[in-house]
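Take a careful look at the protein record below. Let me know whether the structure tokens fit the sequence:
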Amino acid sequence: MGRGPSIEARKNATDAQRGKVFTKLIREIGVAARAGGGDPANNPRLRTAMDKALAANMSKDVMERAVKKATGELEGVEYEEVRYEGYAPGGVAVIVDCLTDNRVRTVADVRHAFSKNGGNMGTEGSVAFMFKRLGVLSYEGGDEERITEAAIEAGADDIVAYPEDGAIDVLTTPESFEAVKQAMSAAGLAPGYAEVGFRADNDVAVSGDTALQVKKMLAMLEDLDDVQNVWSNADLGDAG
């Protein structure tokens, strides 16, 4: 029986992944600060980005430098938001949100990920109509009744429970997301994950080799430095 990776190799891989996560979070903090100002108390998008960074154990010093670069107090790179849409194998719709300082590089990388895995990029709006933009507060477990009561009181739109693993999602409009998140946290129910993003109106079930190909394509897109989020309507079944 062969030996697995050494402790050093595993640590290096973990550090590399952590660095990639930090890079994406720093870009999001910078864009949010440039768009809405460097004070998180008056900038909900920045506050959400900083909460995600804190959850990933990013230091406040690193976050503050990102804000200062974005607001001109320190020299930094300016990133712009770009969205690409397309289809993965099996008719799966995909939205790719990017932050980039070089559109030519980014579109080439995204197109390569689509084409290499049997997908194809579409025009703007070609799949977005299949998704709704909403806020999601996710709980890995907990008292469903308590979470539901608190969510209704906080003004959430819907609560979705997943009996198979005990997870619970609280859904909000993008506009009420921050208020609901604060109310839930004040009730002692801080979510494990919270973000405004896209959710498909209907999932597309794929299986076998097609599901594996879709999974590979989504992972390749998510691994790109310029990609912040990948949304799809894929129901991967056991391949997920």
User: Anything to note?
Assistant: The first strand starts at residue 80 and ends at 88.
